[in-house]
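User: quick one, sequence for these tokens?
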């Protein structure tokens, strides 16, 4: 069955689409601009904006799952976060409900826990470090609501630091390699779930991770990479899980 990827022209979406296309996974790709690298062979591309509910609903027709990666991926004004990340997510979930899509994977962020101190054993607790993170807390809340009210299965993946290689000290805990991201997101879209709503932390198998691996076994996720295998990145100086995000001024 066809998998719909929103934000398919973005860094994670483009790599995910390319990887899954080589595996023969039928894909429908959605973004407001075409992927710079082109559409993978065999995939369909839909040019649409998350703010267009009708277009999102049409794109969701007949798919088996949606991997929702689209939205603003850095800090910004609150109004923009509401418009793109919160309202956009609502449109995706509503499209899933109306088109009877059984599974939606939501790209949350490790920044929803960003204001927790490094080394705090309660670092899994929600503590958003930015307007961006607040939008992701809301994304998770919407997912839980839709799972309960409509029966759509939801997996919220708190994506870590998505990089080709870890290159700063905090990445020893937060790194998510592109290969592991593909494995995790595909599993979240296709594997049977133990419950209708599942939250998992999206990192590689970092031996110094700050978060529990709850849900990994349920998804059959066995990451291949570990930041510890890469050269030493220096001593950790961050006092909070969210790193630089915790120091940003609130945008006007």
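Assistant:
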């Amino acid at each position: 069955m066809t998998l719909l990827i929103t934000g398919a022209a973005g860094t994670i979406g483009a790599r995910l689409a390319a990887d899954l296309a080589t595996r023969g996974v039928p894909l429908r790709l959605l973004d407001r601009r075409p992927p710079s690298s082109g559409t993978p062979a065999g995939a369909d591309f839909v040019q649409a904006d998350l703010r267009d509910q009708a277009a999102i609903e049409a794109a969701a027709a007949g798919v088996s799952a949606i991997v929702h990666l689209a939205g603003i991926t850095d800090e910004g004004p609150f109004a923009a976060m509401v418009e793109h990340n919160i309202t956009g997510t609502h449109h995706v979930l509503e499209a899933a409900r109306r088109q009877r899509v059984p599974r939606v994977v939501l790209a949350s962020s490790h920044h929803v826990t960003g204001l927790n101190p490094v080394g705090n054993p309660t670092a899994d607790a929600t503590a958003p470090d930015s307007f961006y993170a607040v939008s992701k807390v809301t994304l998770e809340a919407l997912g839980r609501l839709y799972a309960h009210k409509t029966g759509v299965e939801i997996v919220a993946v708190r994506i870590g630091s998505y990089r080709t290689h870890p290159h700063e000290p905090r990445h020893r805990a937060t790194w998510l390699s592109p290969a592991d991201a593909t494995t995790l997101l595909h599993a979240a879209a296709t594997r049977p779930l133990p419950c209708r709503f599942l939250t998992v932390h999206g990192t590689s198998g970092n031996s110094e991770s700050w978060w529990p691996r709850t849900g990994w076994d349920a998804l059959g996720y066995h990451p291949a990479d570990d930041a510890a295998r890469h050269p030493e990145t220096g001593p950790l100086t961050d006092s909070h899980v969210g790193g630089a995000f915790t120091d940003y001024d609130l945008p006007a």
